[in-house]
Amino acid sequence: MIIKKVTKKDLLDIWLWRNNRTTIYFSKNKKKISLKNHTKWLYKILSNSKIKFYKGYLVRKNKIKKIGVVRFDIKKRKYALVSINLNPLMRGRKLSYILLAAAIKKFLKFKKVRLVAEIKKNNFASTKSFTKNNFYFYDSKDQYNFYQRTLG
Question: For an engineered disulfide with 73, which of 45, 53, 81, 147 has Cβ 3.0 to 4.6 Å away?
Answer without folding.
Answer: 81
